[in-house]
Amino acid sequence: DIRIARKSAGKLGLPEVTLGVLPGTGGTQRLVRLVNKSTAIELMVTGETFDFEKGQQIGIINQIWEPATNDEFLEKIQKYAESFCPPNRAAKAVGRIKRSVQSGIEVPFESALAMERELQQQLFQSEDAKEGLAAYIEKRKANFSAK
How far, CA to CA in Å, does 101 sit from each of 105, 112, 113, 132? Predict the structure, then answer.
């Protein structure tokens, strides 16, 4: 759901058309949900492979990082992932955001809004929401506990 690439570490593409087949295992459905329909079709029918910079331009890659070694890249990824966890972020809220977006895109808009309201209601009952709102009112940094 968040895609980070290591600069000059590979290429992207769905070249299955060069084998006479379509991008299976959800390839045709996932790509069109990341980029617009005509771009998705063009990429699949041409079978083009491309660098991460183009992937970022069309919305497949979120960020491109340039750490010197693979270990540094993995450390940076780990640190980035940890930034979404307590005490910096409310883990329940992060999870519900992901669930709302991932599930909501699969259902009609009205159903997605209903799901969002339900998830929001669940979050308002959490200790993290109480902490976040209190920290905002008290003008201090929140200290989330994933509860």
Answer: 6, 8, 10, 22
